[in-house]
Amino acid sequence: MAEDAPIAAAEGTQPAPPEGSADASPPAADAKTAEALLPSLSIWPPSQRTRDAVVRRLVQTLAAPSVLSKRYGAVPEPEAERAAAAVEAEAFAAASESAAAASPASVEEGIEVLQAYSKEVSRRILELAKSRAAPAAAPAEVSVKEEQEDSSATAAPSAESAASEE
């Protein structure tokens, strides 16, 4: 047994106690003890620090160059901060409401609620970006239509209109 100790120390494990010793405990008891020593893992709700990080990332996505801001236009930072905070709060409230109905008891259920929260944040931020882009695009469309109408009004009469006048 003494020869096994250096090998066990080198491998980073402790030698197994002799089978008849008082140190031997059933494996189930070891698992329960290990669970009691580990901190509990709670997926939902996210900490305030995590929620603040989500808001900061949303502001960055809206205000700084990103796929979203390139496609729908950048949002001024003060407005992006207000919008990001509102989007995150609404998504959190929606996910919390579904979590309250389901009361996530396990880590897996917490992960499902967290995924719903993430999808809700994504959906709402995309809606926001699209809604901001729509009013900006509308005046451009109106001015293009006005230009087309102006150019058709000032253009020479077509052959059909000239023939109908004769």
From TrEMBL:
Residues 19-32, 131-142, 151-166 have a biased composition (Low complexity). Residues 1-32, 131-166 are annotated as: Disordered. Coiled coil: none annotated. The keyword Nucleus applies. Pfam families: WPP. Its main location: cytoplasm. Residues 40-137 form the WPP domain. GO terms for cellular component: cytoplasm; nucleus. GO terms for biological process: lateral root development; mitotic cell cycle. Keywords: Cytoplasm, Nucleus. It is found in: Cytoplasm; Nucleus. This is WPP domain-containing protein. The lineage of its organism: Eukaryota, Viridiplantae, Streptophyta, Embryophyta, Tracheophyta. The gene is gb21497.
